[in-house]
Amino acid sequence: MLEIKNKLPFVEDTSLHDIIKVCQTPFYVYSQKMITHKVEMTKKILGKNIFFSVKANSNQAILKLMNSLGIGADVVSVGELKRSLDAGFPPNKIIFEGVGKSKEDLIYAIQKNIRLINTESLEEIKLLQKLALEKNKIIDIGVRLNPNIDGGTISKISTGKKTDKFGIEINEIEKIVNLISNCNNLNLIGVSCHIGSQISNIDAYKNTFIEMKKAADKFMASGINIKHVDLGGGFHVSYGKNDPKFRIEDVKSELDSQFNSSKYELSFEPGRYLIAEAGILVTSIINTKENGGVNYLIVDAGMNTFVRPAMYNAHHDIETITKKTDNSIQYTVAGPICESTDIFVRNILLSKQTVGDILIIRNTGAYGKVMSSTYNTRSLPAEVLVNKENFAMIYIPEKIEKNIEEDIIPSWL
């Protein structure tokens, strides 16, 4: 999303230098054009029933943009549910997931008449029946199944194996049917699954689709009218040159192959795929030093600003916005946090850098600001949304001691 025009960095038609003049680093920048492109492309290939996974980026302006593009919201907490409603998502386009929904969370969701509450355990189904009976309401629910499929991703973002904490084991369908038959206030109309994130292996999708079709058909044969089959998300994003290539068209091919004559509606819940590549993190070099033969660039962004490299050992391409010399130096880029794991990348070749220079961390639109923290009592990063030649601050961090944090909606949304 960052382009060099006449040797100057631009996001869409906005000069990055113009943003830097009014926004203190570190901060996130998002391209509205790229977000719109990814959403429209995904809808065109996979169909209109796309639900944005809010946990990927929950800024109110981003959510308002997603809603304007005609997709729904997939939430995993009552906080995300409230933010989605505040952003204008119709209740009938919100799905409530989550392995740990409290009684109060469920009551709130019931009151808002959302599309589906996806249950993740037999005990949760029993609790929902009790609450529905107390409220004298009939509630539409789904069940999240665990298909015991390894998506081939790292263990920290695997969610579809039977040893993972998510969903109900797929071999317990008979127990679900028997339980639902005694729950007069629950209307089971959907089944869903999600096997993890950053999945590039098409066979994993194929196997998931096969298992989910079998499951949906088994429910139907038991007399339960399944209207919705939600196949999750987890579509791979290439964070670096060595990442595997991913074609969402291949997912569509497997989808058509397995569900060519289905009577239920199919849907997906991508998050990262829709927004990761639309964001960059802008950070300044605040110190340079050499320790034990390692050339460190200490930047003002840290693991509190962007945690993925520290938490997942994730790689993100880092680059300069100006090339000062043809001679490259091998650097380790580190943050200011008092933790040895606060490293963004090791042994990267960059032209000689000095204090005050700007670095760009690419593909940070997902799981960036939303996972940031005030660790070491540092302020949260700002966020900027670019729309052609216009840009707006969509999150301005107040001083930490004021404890006031509020998103801002641009005038064009």
List descriptors:
single chain, 413 residues, alpha/beta, Lyase, Ornithine Decarboxylase, Chain A, domain 1, TIM Barrel, nine-stranded parallel sheet, 26% strand, elongated
Write up what this structure looks like.
The structure is a single chain. By secondary structure, the chain is an alpha/beta fold. The protein folds into two domains: 2-29 and 277-402, Lyase, Ornithine Decarboxylase, Chain A, domain 1; 32-275, Alanine racemase (TIM Barrel, Alpha-Beta Barrel). 27% of the residues lie in helices and 26% in strands. The chain has eleven helices and 21 strands. The strands form three sheets. Strands 4, 14, 15, 16, 17, 18, 19, 20 and 21 form a nine-stranded mixed beta sheet that branches. Strands 5, 6, 7, 8, 9, 10, 11, 12 and 13 form a nine-stranded parallel beta sheet that branches. It has a three-stranded antiparallel beta sheet with strand order 1-2-3. Helix 5 packs across helix 6 and helix 8 (202-221) runs parallel beside helix 9. The two termini are 20 Å apart. The mean pLDDT is 92.
Mean pLDDT: 92
Q: What fraction, in percent, of the residue positions are helical?
A: 25-40%
Strand tally: 21
CATH architecture term of the largest domain: Alpha-Beta Barrel
In the CATH hierarchy, the third-tier topology of the largest domain is known as TIM Barrel
CATH superfamily assignment of the largest domain?
A: Alanine racemase
Shape: elongated
CATH class of the largest domain: Alpha Beta
Question: Which helices and strands appear, and what pairs or packs with what?
Answer:
Elements: E1 2-5, E2 8-11, E3 14-15, H1 16-22, E4 27-31, H2 32-46, E5 51-53, H3 60-68, E6 72-75, H4 78-86, E7 94-96, H5 103-112, E8 116-119, H6 122-135, E9 139-146, E10 168-169, H7 173-180, E11 186-192, H8 202-221, E12 228-230, H9 248-258, E13 265-267, H10 272-275, E14 279-291, E15 294-299, H11 308-312, E16 318-320, E17 328-334, E18 343-351, E19 358-362, E20 382-387, E21 390-395
Helix pairs in contact: 5-6, 8-9
